[in-house]
């Protein structure tokens, strides 16, 4: 029993918004004994996603800028929870280099467009979908990518597309893209976790 427990791969989700992706991830892994969502990290103490975590018995941690950028406290918390993978889901702060190094190949983000287009600073939420609409492109989609020290530029792990019609508003595009996120993010995380060893074995 103890040995089995030690082999469980643990996930931390960093999220600061409504947390619909975080919820999907939690639901996906809930019945799977090989994986566990152990920690929810947010930089907003009033983020609705924190309630979802608490309801599901997941530990929460609120970050402030000083703690994130001027200390390595978060690493201690990640170690305490034996975290093997970090999934960003609506977390807008750039990852500091100590964290990128410690979780190289083990920290991913989901972006609501087909990178490398429509990414970078300021490209989040409805701004992304407005830019896609403005560009008049025939499709949009999602990109799941590894996290580095710049916005939206780490290597791409997975993309999925959805067709757009000229009548689609930015809100319509957002809806289509969010559906794709909910469908794919958790399974892609599971596949990645399956392919990496535990961080501290
Ligand atoms: C998603 O669109 C994701 O692509 C982006 O932030 C949004 C988070 O949405 N990184 P939610 O809070 O999971 O609903």
Estimate what percentage of residues fall within beta strands.
15-25%
Relevant CATH superfamily:
Formyl transferase, N-terminal domain
**Number of helical segments with 4 or more residues:** 8
Shape type: globular
Gyration radius, in Å: 17 Å
Could you tell me the number of beta strands?
Answer: 7
Average per-residue pLDDT, rounded, comes to 96
Question: Outline of this structure?
Answer:
The protein is α/β, with parallel strands linked by helices.
Question: How are the SSEs ordered, and which strands pair?
Answer:
Blueprint (H helix, E strand, L loop, with lengths): L1 H5 L2 E6 L5 H11 L4 E8 L6 H7 L3 E4 L2 H6 L2 H8 L2 E6 L8 H6 L4 E5 L14 H10 L3 E8 L9 E8 L6 H26 L6
Parallel strand pairs: 1-2, 1-4, 2-3, 4-5
Antiparallel strand pairs: 5-6, 6-7
Helix pairs in contact: 2-8, 7-8
The structure holds 5-O-phosphono-beta-D-ribofuranosylamine (GRF).
The site of 5-O-phosphono-beta-D-ribofuranosylamine has 14 residues, from α2, β5 and α8.
Fold and architecture overview:
With 201 residues, the protein is α/β, with parallel strands linked by helices. The protein has a single domain (2-194), classed as 3-Layer(aba) Sandwich (Rossmann fold), CATH 3.40.50. It is built from eight helices and seven strands. It has helices spanning 2-6, 20-30, 49-55, 65-70, 73-80, 97-102, 126-135, 170-195, and strands at 9-14, 35-42, 59-62, 83-88, 107-111, 139-146, 156-163. Strands 3-2-1-4-5-6-7 form a seven-stranded mixed β-sheet, sandwiched between helices. Strand 1, helix 2 and strand 2 (35-42) form a beta-alpha-beta unit. Helix 2 packs parallel to helix 8. The longest helix has 26 residues, at 170-195. The radius of gyration is 17 Å and the shape is globular. The structure holds 5-O-phosphono-beta-D-ribofuranosylamine (GRF).
């Amino acid at each position: 029993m103890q040995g089995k427990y030690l082999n469980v791969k643990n996930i931390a989700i960093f999220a600061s918004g409504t947390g619909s992706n975080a919820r999907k991830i939690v639901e996906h892994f809930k019945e799977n004994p090989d994986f566990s969502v152990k920690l929810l990290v947010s930089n907003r103490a009033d983020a609705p996603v924190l309630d979802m975590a608490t309801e599901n018995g997941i530990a929460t941690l609120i970050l402030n800028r000083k703690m994130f950028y001027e200390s390595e406290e978060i690493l201690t918390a990640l170690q305490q929870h034996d975290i093997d993978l970090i999934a960003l889901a609506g977390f807008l702060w750039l990852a500091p280099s100590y964290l990128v190094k410690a979780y190289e190949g083990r920290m991913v983000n989901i972006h609501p467009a087909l990178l490398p287009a429509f990414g970078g600073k300021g490209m989040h939420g409805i701004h992304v979908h407005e830019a896609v609409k403005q560009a008049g492109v025939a499709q949009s989609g999602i990109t799941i990518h590894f996290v580095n020290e710049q916005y939206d530029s780490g290597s791409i792990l997975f993309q999925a597309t959805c067709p757009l019609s000229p009548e689609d508003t930015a809100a319509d595009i957002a809806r289509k893209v969010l559906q794709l996120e909910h469908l794919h993010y958790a399974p892609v995380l599971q596949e990645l976790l399956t392919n990496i060893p535990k961080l501290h074995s």
